[in-house]
Design brief:
With 551 residues, the chain is of the alpha/beta class. It is 52% helix and 12% strand. Helix 19 packs antiparallel against helix 20.
Length: 551
């Protein structure tokens, strides 16, 4: 469950009415927002607003908290956060967003805190929305009218999620900000942007960053926010308290604040123009899969995943189907006939298709579990080894002299199994060592300090990495080659991921025999292992030495 606190304190400048009450086709902005949160099983929905608007908001069937100003807003937020026993969403009451935006924050966010953001470079010294600097998905500096951001590359979109473990930090931050808001000069306005490494030419050539990157009408978000922006202040506070705040957003999904009726009308059109289910389905496909998976499976497997979701299938059930198909493939391979090899190759391909479907179904339907992750990894190994056994049996069962006969290939099967097992062990160990590393903590910065000079300062772009020698050159070349598409896919293919392995087994078994299959697997596997281990060794030499955890 999640607790949602909707901050409906901003007013339309021309008429002094709440921006949360602006009209959309389905009702008011805040009414639509509360309905979306209710549909996500967010049972505790509270609205923070000014006393003159409280009666109207109570008609929406939510708990209303009255507040007379920014300092009181922050103290009420602190009180709610201290009482919270579940994650919290702090949302501007004038946010218009796709439901998928809230879904991703409520169900897909495991970070201590997350903020809805768009990675664009604000143009000019007065950004249209609170600016922030994002590095590797983490917000390292966030701004308001009272807090400056150096070289911003993103904008805050009005939604903050805080995990249950960090609600006490949120409360502490809100109290500190309330004290500053109460003191004359405690929060002093400052130019929101400071440029160090972004040149003036870069800024001028960037054009209208928001319109260019989001596809939205320039009208949307064109009015600077000048009112009490408590959620943006809370983001600043969490970042400056050293909490890891991740940036969550999508260029295809809409999440924006509206400050007048013209903007509300334009944003309604922008929401209607997006097929939300298509975006959700596309997001269910991994964006870093191998070449074979990307072009020979994921182009259509996502639709199988959606079909399964509509019928209530579970990812674990699809994993079991994939395992069952691979057993059938092994049985066909064991017949020792060409038609068996062909049918086995087809079955193995579809076993891999359903292996992709189970993960896509989990992401599409948000059915995540530790058991599912364990089953997926375990059955991936079991499928390969079952097929190895089927190929070895079929090779000896085939008629001598036939194209399928490869003789006794059990020693090759065991060698292939051993090589693959060792590769998985190395991959697991390397992945575990990476997970042990924690990012360098951000410094604790006083909230009264307008500048962000103590925060993670950006560095000018460098043509070569720090240091010298073969290892640094190799790492630099690897990073550069990622930008060239043909080299990007070559690096994906050469490591022989599971998609390429299943394709190699299917093709060589269908055309040749098991002996050729195992020789091909061993040859390519040795090349892949050498490339992977060599690259990791060189990369490790560029990393600073760290004390052993078990010392």
């Amino acid at each position: 469950m999640t607790l949602a606190l909707v901050v409906a304190t901003e007013t339309v400048a021309s008429v002094s009415s709440p921006t949360a009450g602006l009209a959309l086709r389905s009702g008011s902005v805040v009414g639509r927002l509360l309905d979306q949160l209710k549909s996500l099983d967010v049972g505790d929905r509270r609205v923070l607003t000014r006393p003159e608007n409280a009666a109207e908001l109570r008609e929406l069937g939510c708990t209303v908290i009255e507040s007379k100003g920014l300092a009181e807003d922050l103290r009420e937020i602190a009180r709610v956060a201290r009482e919270a026993t579940e994650p919290m969403l702090v949302v501007h009451g004038d946010v218009v967003a796709h439901r998928e935006v809230f879904l991703r924050l409520v169900f897909n966010s495991k970070a201590p805190a997350s903020a809805a953001a768009t990675r664009v470079r604000p143009v000019g010294d007065e950004p249209r929305r609170p600016a922030m600097r994002i590095r590797r998905g983490r917000i390292v500096s966030s701004g308001t009218r009272f807090h400056q951001v150096t070289d911003p590359n993103g904008l805050f979109r009005g939604v903050l999620r805080v995990s249950e473990e960090q609600t006490e930090t949120l409360a502490s931050v809100a109290d500190q900000l309330a004290e500053l808001a109460d003191v004359p000069g405690g929060l002093t306005e400052i130019s929101p942007v400071r440029i160090l490494w972004q040149t003036q030419d870069e800024l001028e050539n960037h054009g209208d960053a928001e319109a260019e990157n989001t596809g939205l009408s320039p009208l949307i978000g064109s009015t600077p926010i000048t009112g009490d922006d408590a959620p943006a202040l809370l983001v600043v506070g969490m970042v400056r308290a050293g909490v890891k705040v991740t940036a969550r957003g999508s260029r295809e999904l809409v999440c924006e604040r509206v400050l007048d009726q013209e903007q509300a009308d334009a944003l309604q059109q922008a929401v209607d123009a997006v097929d939300e289910d298509r975006v959700r389905l596309s997001a269910a496909v991994k964006n870093n899969d191998g070449f074979f998976t990307t072009y020979a499976v994921s182009t259509y497997s996502r639709y199988i995943a959606r079909w399964c979701a509509k019928r209530g299938w579970t990812p674990n059930g699809v994993t079991a189907i994939s395992m069952g198909i691979s057993v059938v493939a092994a049985a066909w391979f064991a017949t020792g006939h060409r038609w068996g090899m062909l049918l086995g190759a087809v079955c193995l391909y579809f076993a891999f298709v359903f292996d992709c479907v189970d993960g896509q179904l989990a992401r599409y339907s948000r059915q995540f579990s530790t058991l599912g992750a364990w089953l997926d990894a375990t059955f991936d190994r079991a499928k390969e080894y079952t097929v190895f056994a089927g190929l070895a049996v079929g090779s000896t069962a085939a008629a001598v002299g036939s194209s399928v006969h490869g003789g006794d290939v059990w020693y090759l099967a065991v060698a292939a199994l051993t090589l693959q097992t060792c590769r998985h062990m190395v991959d697991f160990a390397f992945g575990a060592s990476k997970r042990r590393k924690t990012p360098d903590p951000l410094p604790i910065v006083p909230l009264a300090m307008p500048e962000d000079t103590m925060l993670d300062e950006p560095e000018p772009a460098k043509s070569r990495p720090k240091g010298g020698g073969l290892s640094h050159l190799a790492v630099w070349l690897s990073a550069r080659s990622e930008k060239i598409r043909i080299f990007h896919w070559f690096k994906k293919i050469i490591v022989l991921p599971i998609g390429e392995r299943f394709a190699l087994i299917s093709l060589t078994a269908a055309i040749f025999n098991a002996k050729v299959t195992f020789i091909a697997l061993l040859t390519w596997g040795v090349i892949a292992a050498s490339y992977t281990i060599g690259g990791r060794f060189l990369r490790s030499l560029t990393q600073p030495r760290a004390a052993r955890l078990d010392a």
